[in-house]
Amino acid sequence: MSEEIPSRYRHPRRFFSIPGVILGLILGLAVALFYAWNLAPVQEFDTQPWQLKADVKDQFIVAIALNYNHDNDLAGAINRLVALQLPGDPIQAVADAACRLATTGYVNSSSGLHAIRAMMKLYQPQGRSGCADSLISLNDTPEANVVTIELPTPTMTLTPPPSKTPTPVVAAPTQTPVLVIVPTIPPQNDFDLISVTPLTCSTTQSGLITVEVYDNDGVTGLPGEEIRARWDTGESDFYTGLMPDKDPGYADFEMEQGKDYIIDMPGHADPLPQPLSAVPCTTADGSKAVVSYRVLFRNNQ
What we know:
Radius of gyration: 34 Å
Number of strands: 12
CATH architecture of one domain: Sandwich
Number of helices: 6
Distance between the termini: 97 Å
Strand content: 15-25%
CATH class of one domain: Mainly Beta
Structural class: alpha+beta
Shape: extended
C-alpha cells in the first residue's frame, strides 16, 4: 500500500506570485514616475502662443501692446493676437485683458501702469473699450500726479511810529495763500541689476545678449518689460515675454562683432556700469564665434 502524499504538496505549483507581481508593478511605477518628474523631466519646446495658459496669454498680450507702442505696426500686432486664437474680436480681447489686470495688484507698480496704458493705446483708437478706461488715466501727466497744499499766511500788523497825534493802526491786506506743489510721481528704478555673466563660447549662441527679468521672488519671470540696448550709432528696444517657450521673463538681442553695448530698463533700472563688448572667442572644438552675455534684473518692490 502506497504512502499517502500530504495535502500541502498536492496543490499545483505556480510559476509566479500574484502578490509579488502587484508589488513589482507598484515599485516599477514609482521608480518610473520619480525618474520622469525629477531626473529627466519633459522639456517643453516649440510652444505655440495659443497653447499658453489663460494668465500667460494676458502677459503675452501685454508684450504685444508694448511692442506696438514701440513700432506702431498695427498689422503685426493683430497678427500676433490672432496667433493666440482668442475667442471673438482680438482687439476687444486686449481691452478685456487690460480690464482683468487693472483690477488686480498688477497696477501697483509703475511698470504695471505703463503696460496697461500701452494696451489702452492699442485698443482705444480702434473703437474698443473696457473697465480699465474708468480705472486708469491714459496719460500720466504731471498735473495728475501733484498734491496742492495750501499754507495760510499770517496777517501782519504795523506798529505806528511815536506821535503826539494818535495814528490809527492800519492792518496790512491779507496775502494770497501760498500754494506748494508736492510731486507724487511714482518712484523709478523699481528693478535692480542682479548679475552680468559671460556665457560659454558657442557657435549656436554667438554674440547674443540674453536678458531675464524676474519678480521680487527671483523665480517668476515678468513678460512685457522693456529692455534697451544702446551703442555708438544707435539704440534698439526689445521686450520680455515674446518667447514664452523659454521663459516669460526672457528676451534676447543679437550684437554686431566689434561694437560695445549698454543695456538698461528705461525708467526702471539704471544702465549697466560698463558696456558689453562683442569680442570674438574660440569654442572648445576650435570654431570661431562671438562672446555672449546673460543679464539678470529683479523687481525690488
